[in-house]
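Hey, quick one: can you model this chain's 3D structure?
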Amino acid sequence: MIDTNPLLAIEDLHATVDGQPILRGVELTTHRGEVHTIMGPNGSGKSTLAKVLMGHPAYEITSGRVYFDGKDITEADPPSRARMGMFLAFQHPEAIPGVSVVNFLRTALSNRTGINYTVLELRLRVMDAMSSLGMDSTFADRYVNQGFSGGERKRNEVLQMAVLEPELAIMDETDSGLDIDALRTVAEGVNRLAGPERGFLIITHYQRLLDHITPDRVHVLVDGRIVESGDIDLARRLEAEGYEAFRRIGAV
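Sure thing. Here's the predicted structure for all 252 residues.
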């Protein structure tokens, strides 16, 4: 059953970067148990929206509000949002030399929950998550994203979600640059993690990811605002027709 209380509520959100307006009145409401997809052309504001939702300091909210689980987080910093249960899977995850995946996750989970996990406790949790995602156990001892292929970096993001168990997972073009096998692996991980206690906001250019993940709602973002929403048929229409018609809607 879908929770009737919004998990994420975005109200007339306007935001700038370096003084340049990017978001121009975004309105969006999601609930636990739902998978929402945001699609749009390059430069439409998709990645900006993801970063604004996580409180990236380079992006300034000039008007509007963001609520998470009923709390106004418009002014909250990124660590506070992460502790509340928000998670961002990056389009281009950074490498962290010298820090193993298991130690990185131990620190992240301790900060998320306030519990000081031992290395053994966290390793068992990571191994369980890796097994459920079909990942090689040696992955845990590699340095975070160092020498990882594009697909391995994206699988590592899914592993982080599995271990941290966020309330809301925001995925910023996680399908970017993936071959079909890596895309399927990422999608299968999302499908395993989806459930009534968690919401997903998946940002993508392409309908191909939605061959493996069926969203509850699809939203089209053009020129910094959502111009149309619908079900999976809207994504198929985008694939067939492109964004030009929606650009005209956004210009009205």
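One thing worth noting: The chain has one domain: 6-251.
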